[in-house]
Amino acid sequence: MRSGPVFRASSFGLVAVLAALALAGCGGGTTASSAVGSPPTSNTANPTPTPARSTIQVHVPLPNTTPGTFSPTGSMATARAQQTASLLSTGRVLIAGGGATVEGARAELYDPTPGTFSPTGSMHTGRYGATATVLSNGRVLIAGGWSEDPDAPVLASAELYDPASGTFLEAGPMTTPRAGHTATLLSNGRVLITGGQTEGNNVFSALATAELYDPATGTFSPTGSMTVARVNHTATLLPGGRVLIAGGGGPMGVSVGSGVGSAPSLASAELYDPANATFGAIGSMAGARFWHTATLLLNGRVLIAGGGDGTRPLASTELYDPAIESFSKSGSMSAARYLQTATTLANGFVLVAGGYADNVGSLESAELYDPNAGLFSPTGSMSDSRFEHTATLLTDGLVLIVAGGSTDESIDDAARLAKAELYQP
Questions:
Q1: Residues 95, 106: contact at Cβ < 8 Å?
Q2: Residue among 103, 185, 87 nearest 402 (CA)
Q3: C-alpha dist (Å) from residue 347 to 136, 159, 222
Q4: pLDDT tens digit sequence for 363-419
Q5: What's phi and psi for 266, nearest 5 deg?
Q6: What is the mean predicted confidence (pLDDT) over 39-58?
Q7: What number is the average pLDDT over the span 279-290?
Q8: Which secondary-structure segment (H or E) carries 102?
Q9: Global pTM?
Q10: Contact (Cβ atoms closer than 8 angstroms) between residue 272 and residue 194
Q11: In order of start, what are the domains of the chain with their CATH numbers?
């Protein structure tokens, strides 16, 4: 792994973004793919037209009911990576973004009953690496992310998906363009946006700032800043209502034309308290990491797993205990990985799936974490190796794995996937 590659737009997009920005600074040039327009700046709620609803006709094999196995399910119409996946109140899953230009604006719905995907309304702006948060009213807030527009590679725009109409409405925008940020639904119904990176004067920089989205007003407003700038970190809502912020890449930036710059990976952590809208430092993790996962366990602790430290992928894991506000080491995974998914199952175990490892490529392996024993054990492998995918726990207890990048070579040579599969616990 490159030294500290935390300021990459995407495994699929940074080279194009940097090249486009460099060309734009030189007075011309075009990108390899068509660019989307500048992010919308109006705050009007103009719904996008909903395309005719027609289910994609594909043969969907019946899911394997053998415990600990993956089986294929319907494929999407659009190949994606760094998309969002949101479980709706209907039990369907909204898949949005994850591509460039027109493809990055498309969205689809997965229906678990027939196991198929069908089109729904498109977003106003193509994006990947955005956040998606299901609000208390059932709508889905999509915020920020990357575009391949050289004039606006990092997005401030936000949109709301309305499941009732199947359309996206313009919202926001955020106070600051962000990618590699986090979005957390708070107990009061607001959404906390933290950190990420932004671009200005052809320089990418990590952010310490944070903001709140208020569904009642449909607007974003600044809140307290973190103790340090972070990108590709994690944010986890704790049972008491506070938010655990952990790891990420540090405050250094990278200039266009210099390639991917090095930035320090962070071991530090902090807590956001919604009661007074402030961040406060707490004990650090045993090791620095970014591109890791942070998963709330049924016992209230948080499992921090994998990621990278700037020199290599990690197999190590840690547990955060909110009662004593400290981290402790836990059992290691069988495979070092970053950009994986981690999903708490109904039985309390955690499914860790896929990811990427240097000199190996994308991974199809998966493993289960037992919180009682504090150990990992192997489980069935996915049909396709993938990273930067999504994993969604469905209402029937199955886990839907969607899209992502797949490669047995460099992370920048990955191809987007349209395939999906189901994990049977």
A1: no
A2: 87
A3: 25, 34, 38
A4: 999 999 999 999 999 999 999 999 999 999 999 999 999 999 999 988 888 999 999
A5: -110, 140
A6: 40
A7: 97
A8: helix 101-105
A9: 0.86
A10: yes
A11: 14-20+61-424 (2.120.10.80)
Cβ–Cβ contacts within 10 Å for residue 216, how many?
8
Residues written for the chain: 425
CB-CB neighbours of 259 under 10 Å: 14
SS3 state at 405 = strand
| CA-wise closest residue to 406 among 348, 362, 360 | 362
Beta strands of 106-166 (E only): which ranges? Answer: 107-111, 116-120, 131-134, 140-143, 158-162
Mean pLDDT of the chain: 86
Per-residue CA distances from 246 to 17, 243, 333 (Å): 28, 10, 19
The upper half-sphere exposure of residue 207, i.e. CA atoms within 13 Å in the direction of its Cβ, equals 25
pLDDT, tens digit (0-9, with 9 covering 90-100), for 369-383: 999 999 999 999 999
128: which 2 tokens? 């990947």
CA distances from 36 to 47, 167, 302, 375 (A): 18, 19, 38, 46
- CA dist 351 and 220 (Å) reads 34
The per-type count for the chain, helices as H runs and strands as E runs, is 2, 35
157, two tokens: 């725009």
The kind and range of the H/E element at 156 are none
Residues 6 or more apart from 208 whose CB is under 8 A from it? 195, 225, 226, 227, 228, 229, 230, 251
Contact 207, 185 (CB under 8 A): no
